[in-house]
Structures are given as structure tokens and as C-alpha cells.
Write a structure and sequence with these properties.
This protein is α+β, with helices and mostly antiparallel strands and 142 residues long. Helix content is 34%, strand content 20%. It contains 3 helices and 5 strands; from the N terminus they run αββββααβ.
């Protein structure tokens, strides 16, 4: 692939009006393994398709437990998915320690979206090349 001065960060627009780093991240999600979620009134099932690029490649986990009431499945770059999961686990543990109750899934997802958006606004950063499905239950209503 021929690199140009417009694909070094995600705040430099090309003359065609494109952000190459954002397009690269979207392409990584497209080429990633399939993940899906099924929901009923009482349960949520997260599933992924684990494709190995070659017989020598190792198994890569695509489903993680964030907290006892929340799970994460992702498609795209495995390293980015693990980083997002680690961030979500730390935030859930910090909330549990500070307030003594599990974090509300919507609040955690809002924090994650703020963190992800910052990566598209600063030079030297790149957007996450991962698409996430997050399933959680608000335990404050139970």
C-alpha cells in the first residue's frame, strides 16, 4: 500500500475530503470475525465466529465478561478489543469500589464513547478498529 501524508493521523483531511485513518478502522471491522447478540425478555446471548487466518495462528478470544452483569463481544482488531475490555473492567471496578454498587451499563458505554471520540480529534492517535456489542443488565432495578 502506498502511504501518503494524509494517512498519518485522523485529523488531516485528504484533498478528496477523506479521513484515511477512519476508513482503515472501518475496514478492520469489516474484515473482522462476525459477532452477534440475541435478546429475550430474560436472557442475552453473545456469539462470535472465530476464524483463524492461518493454521499456525492461535485462538483469539472475542467474548469477554466485563462485570457480573455485563458482557462484551467484538469484531475487528483483537488488541483494540482487549484494550476496550480492560478499560471497561477498570471503570466498573472503580465504580464498585467508590459507590458500593455495580455501574449502570448506559453510563459505562457513554464513558467508552467519549474515550473513543477523543481518539478521532487529536493528532498522533488513531481510532479503534473494533466494533463492539455490549450486553448488560441494570441491576439497580432488580
Amino acid at each position: 500500500m502506498l502511504r501518503s501524508q494524509y494517512d498519518t493521523d485522523c485529523i488531516t483531511w485528504s484533498p478528496q475530503g477523506r479521513l484515511f485513518q477512519v476508513e482503515y478502522a472501518m475496514e478492520a471491522v469489516k474484515q473482522g470475525s462476525l459477532c452477534l447478540a440475541l435478546r429475550s425478555k430474560t436472557h442475552v446471548v453473545l456469539a462470535t465466529l472465530n476464524r483463524t487466518p492461518s493454521p499456525l495462528a492461535d485462538y483469539q478470544q472475542k467474548i469477554y465478561e466485563v462485570d457480573q452483569h455485563m458482557g462484551l463481544a467484538f469484531a475487528g482488531l483483537t488488541g483494540d478489543g482487549r484494550l476496550i475490555c480492560k478499560y471497561m473492567r477498570n471503570e466498573a471496578l472503580n465504580h464498585q469500589y467508590a459507590f458500593g454498587s455495580p455501574i449502570i451499563p448506559g453510563r459505562l458505554i457513554a464513558q467508552l464513547s467519549e474515550k473513543s471520540q477523543i481518539k478521532t480529534q487529536r493528532s498522533g492517535k488513531r481510532p479503534f478498529g473494533v466494533g463492539c456489542l455490549i450486553a448488560g443488565v441494570d441491576v439497580s432495578f432488580i
